[in-house]
Amino acid sequence: MDNYEEIINYINENSDKIISDLKDESIAVYAFIKSQIKNEPISLSKNYLFQFIFLNYYGLDRIGFSDEFLKDFFEVFEQYRKKPDKFDLIETVKRFYEYDINDKKNYQFSFFTKLYHTIDTSKPIYDSNVCRAIGLKLLKKDNKLDQLIERYGQICDLYNRIKKEKSLSSTIKKFDNRFKKNGISFNMKLDFIFWQTGKLKYKERKDNL
Fold it and tell me: Using 50, 70 and 90 to split pLDDT, how confident is the model at 153?
């Protein structure tokens, strides 16, 4: 991972572009997902509109999950949506490893951090763009659970330090000025910022080839 100062300086120096490149619809759809979790009386296992939007929003509709996998997944989602403190990320990831995805077994770690964040917005999302933003090389195979857990811990520690030191306060302010009364948690603001930062770094690298 890049050192802390490099990460912070890059984001603050490029904050105008990072914030301006965020899409209004991304914020709006995220707000809809959160409203369904909080207010919708229909079980998530039966709320097919929510399922469609959630999968599409996070790009999970292209992975090739079986109907059985998704049925089980949204039942777990419903089970813990009102009691996130009972949710065990690692044990859930291990449990779903038993499903074959396109005839292969993989830990769908990023997928389950998205569930975890949705029921508890203090939890960050593990994502390839977030990894790129902080200088973590992408794993060639998503089947090394110990490394995935270690990386997720690094992201958690980074977000906690940023919150404590207020090192991205100016960038957060720009986010709030653009998306007024957004009701988004601090860590999700960081997720949006780091996700867009990863996309920017990827584009810069491609342009320099």
Answer: very high
- Residue 21's Cα: distance from chain center in Å? 18
Give, to the nearest 10 degrees, the angle between helix 145-165 and helix 89-96.
Answer: 150
Give the Cα separation of 22 and 56 in Å (integer): 17
Please check whether residue 118 is in contact with residue 57, taking contact to mean a CB–CB distance below 8 angstroms: no
- Is the pLDDT at 207 greater than 70? The verdict is yes
**95: which 2 tokens?**
């449990």
State the pLDDT at residue 142: 57
Instruction: Report yes or no: 141 and 165 within 8 Å, Cβ to Cβ.
Output: no
Q: What span, in angstroms and rounded, lies between the C-alpha atoms of 9 and 105?
A: 39
For the chain, give every domain's residue range: 4-207
- Which pair of structure tokens corresponds to residue 199? 């996309």
Residues 6+ apart with CB under 8 A from 104: none
